[in-house]
Amino acid sequence: MDSTIGIVGCNGDLGSRLHNQILKSGITVLGFDVTFGSKTDLTMDSSVFKATKKYTNSLDELVKKTKVIHWCAPLDEIEDFVDSFHDLERIILHDSVMSRSLHVKKNIFTDRTFKVEMLHALMNEHKRVMIAAESDDAEWLNSHVQSIGLRPKLTKTIEHDKLMAESQSLIALLCRDILPELKTSMKKGDLTPSGEALMIALTDREAHWTSATKKSILDNPELKNVVNKLSDTLNDKI
């Protein structure tokens, strides 16, 4: 397994957690952050240890120093950096909607010599990581994930996205379209206790998502199927 791993987007929620997890496995981590820049040295606190991030000044430099990179930055930004990946051996795409990663693999990385792997780290207490069967080398990715102390599970892209639409995208849709109305009703004193509980739960969940994360979640192509299924069920009972 590689002795040094790169992370793009190392200052974000996912990138920071992955950074700490990889360090705990004894592997050196180099970071580059598209949004915040790479020269701001931050100290990440963890219940297990405290570690200072090591940065590169550019993505080109990161590729020269490591052959395996985890892309934890917004996937929409990756097209601007395609030319930097020519000397890379492997890039691992992180997105909660695997079809978005698959689109990049098929339509953005059209002329490449490196391998493209796809996963979604659920960041739950089980340390579950969903691995896309459509990755270039799912067997390697499975071993890689285990080597950094996480628990992989193989899945097909469409199966994963359906699960995420039911368990994640639907909540994001409620946050976008229902939560503002709930907040207004709350101020007027017009919500029942269950309505207040729903508003509090949605508000708490929304606070954990960046605008880029919410956009990605709502871009899930399986969300429409879930909503249509609920609509059909409702119509059947009317």
Report on the architecture of this protein.
Helix content is 45%, strand content 18%. The chain is of the alpha/beta class. The model is unreliable at 36-51 (pLDDT under 50). The protein has 2 domains: 4-155, NAD(P)-binding Rossmann-like Domain (Rossmann fold), CATH 3.40.50.720; 158-237, no CATH class.
CATH superfamily of the largest domain: NAD(P)-binding Rossmann-like Domain
What distance lies between the first and last C-alpha atoms, to the nearest angstrom? 58 Å
SSE order, one letter for each helix or strand? EHEEEHEEHEEHEHHHHH
Biggest sheet strand order reads: 2-1-5-6-7-8-9
| Count of discrete domains | 2
Specify Rg, calculated over alpha carbons: 20 Å
Classify the helix fraction into a percent range: 40-55%
Please give the CATH architecture of the largest domain: 3-Layer(aba) Sandwich
Category from helices, strands and their pairing: alpha/beta
Q: Say how many strands there are.
A: 9
Summarize the helices and strands and which ones pair or pack.
Blueprint: E1 4-8, H1 13-24, E2 28-32, E3 43-45, E4 50-52, H2 59-65, E5 68-71, E6 90-94, H3 98-108, E7 115-121, E8 128-132, H4 138-147, E9 151-155, H5 157-177, H6 179-188, H7 193-206, H8 211-218, H9 223-237
Parallel strand pairs: 1-2, 1-5, 5-6, 6-7, 8-9
Antiparallel strand pairs: 3-4, 7-8
